[in-house]
Design brief:
Length: 120
């Protein structure tokens, strides 16, 4: 599978996937390696289960949330970069934020992740 498609699945199947951490972990296991490392400002996650828990925690902050790819994905060797927009709603208020992803792949799965996010 091309890494561009893996990135689309990263957004569609994982970030826009189910809110339940166990179901998210199942989807994440198809996209990330067992020794996956995710780097957020201020904390890291290790493995598909911790990734799923971090995403589920993000989803819990909103009544609804959806991510869409704005730019990319761009592939250079084993690295993928993309820019996304997130729109979340809580208590009738909408919040928009953007992020830039850089992921390193091993084969057709992501092994490492860096993100920078800002609220608009």
């Amino acid at each position: 599978m091309a890494l561009q498609e893996t990135y689309r699945r990263w957004i569609d199947d994982v970030w826009n996937g189910p809110s339940d951490a166990d179901l998210l972990a199942e989807k994440a296991r198809r996209i990330v390696t067992a020794n996956f490392q995710g780097h957020w400002p201020g904390h890291d996650v290790h493995g598909p289960a911790e990734l799923a828990a971090a995403i589920a925690e993000t989803k819990e902050m909103f009544d609804s949330i959806e991510f869409s790819i704005e730019v990319g994905p761009f592939v250079d060797g084993d690295h993928v970069a993309g820019r996304w927009v997130g729109v979340g709603t809580r208590d009738g208020r909408t919040t928009r934020f953007v992020g830039n992803d850089i992921l390193r792949a091993t084969g057709d799965r992501f092994a490492e992740y860096w993100v920078a996010t800002v609220q608009l």
